[in-house]
Amino acid sequence: MKVARALGLSTAASAVVLCAFLGVGMAGARGYLDNFLAYRGFAPPEEPAFVTRPGTVERVNVPSAALGGRAQETYVYLPSGYAEQPHRRYPVLYLLHGFPGRPLAFLQTVQMGIIDDVLTTQQRAQPLILVMPFGSTGTFNDEEWVNGIGVGNGWATFVSGDLVHYVDQHYRTIATAGGRALGGLSEGGYGAINIAVQHPREFSVVESWSGYERPDKLKSIFGSNLQLLAANDPRALVRHAAPSLRAIGTYFWFYSGSTDQFRKQNAAFAHELGFLHLPHTYRLVYGGHNWAIWRDNARAAYLAAATRLT
């Protein structure tokens, strides 16, 4: 009886230890996964010691009629010195994430906030307000940053209208096209170009980081007969928008990785911009279609916007 009881206690103790071990292991695995999703295998962002007044990030919910009245999650990075200079107005760089993706990746992985702080502190570029909206109803819901089928799917109108209006109303911005840049990575790069050519008087700088110009044939977005596809094809739209784009001097800055499948699309689009006499820079840089190339070129992207905005 005593032996059986002792064995029972031993088994129970072993079970407790095993559960504790598994619990620690699962917590560790979850922590690793969370860390990877936030930083994509890179070290967490850390401000250099010489940056004594880093910028601040705010999470806001932007009400949008284009999205059916929903308030959409958005992050705003206010540059170093924003609070201390209450009469100064700032240009804005809007950044659209890829798919699947979340807006905080621009701060956590690409480290655009630190780039803003460093270049501002070193007086190598003017400070920018960074605005990073969430372009979906879920991380794995693909919306392409377009006005898709159905009610409440006006993602392009959300960006060009509701979001711009909200930011101009709540922050000290330069509320003209000359004070706004629109950029994005991967699908967000497509979204930036597509929105800019559809609304040619809203943004004076357009950036695409490893984006594309040929929209995916997604019936869930463009309709069962792809009836909305032509209305979201920048290759065709840019010719119609060219006079307006030239009138405000819109500048296109974009790049592809040397092994990126979209490099031929981008090279063809650069050729089209040249034919239309639209100012642009297209770069073929070493790399593929990944976070490493977006981090490596983030400083150049910031400077491309900061040096041309009012």
Task: Describe, in plain words, how this protein is organized in 3D.
41% of the residues lie in helices and 16% in strands. An eight-stranded mixed β-sheet has the order 1-2-4-3-5-6-7-8, with helices on both faces. The chain has helices at residues 2-39, 105-108, 112-121, 155-170, 187-198, 219-222, 234-248, 263-275, 291-296, 298-306, and strands spanning 56-63, 71-78, 92-96, 129-133, 180-185, 205-209, 251-257, 280-285. The protein is globular and about 55 Å long. The longest helix has 38 residues, at 2-39. The protein is of the alpha/beta class and 310 residues long. 40% of the residues are buried. The chain has two domains: 1-39; 50-306, Alpha/Beta hydrolase fold, catalytic domain (Rossmann fold, 3-Layer(aba) Sandwich), CATH 3.40.50.1820.
Quick summary:
With 310 residues, the chain is α/β, with parallel strands linked by helices.
Topology (SSEs and partners):
Blueprint: H1 2-39, E1 56-63, E2 71-78, E3 92-96, H2 105-108, H3 112-121, E4 129-133, H4 155-170, E5 180-185, H5 187-198, E6 205-209, H6 219-222, H7 234-248, E7 251-257, H8 263-275, E8 280-285, H9 291-296, H10 298-306
Parallel strand pairs: 3-4, 3-5, 5-6, 6-7, 7-8
Antiparallel strand pairs: 1-2, 2-4
Helix pairs in contact: 4-5, 5-7
